[in-house]
Amino acid sequence: MNADVIPRAQAIANARRALDLARARRDADRAAGRLAPEAELIMRRLEREQRQQTPARAHRAAA
Predict the structure, then answer these.
(1) Rounded to whole angstroms, how far apart are CA atoms 11 and 29?
(2) pLDDT tens digits, the chain, 63 residues: what are they?
(3) 49 Cα distance to chain centroid
(4) Are 41 and 30 in contact (CB under 8 A)?
(5) What do you get for the CA distance between the two ends of the chain, in Å?
(6) What is the CA radius of gyration of the chain?
(7) What pLDDT is recorded for position 60?
């Protein structure tokens, strides 16, 4: 039964690899203009929110 168990580090590496591939596909589709307009708007909103949070995080870390 132990042969079916995947080590934690391997599971994390597999998940990270799958996530990186999905992000690469999303970025390629976005660059080619193949994303739905609604998805593009959501991504822009999320990117804007992330940019606004970054200085606040850096300030809190310095304090």
Answers:
(1) 27
(2) 566 899 999 999 999 999 999 999 999 999 999 999 999 999 999 999 999 987 766 666 665
(3) 14
(4) no
(5) 50
(6) 18
(7) 64
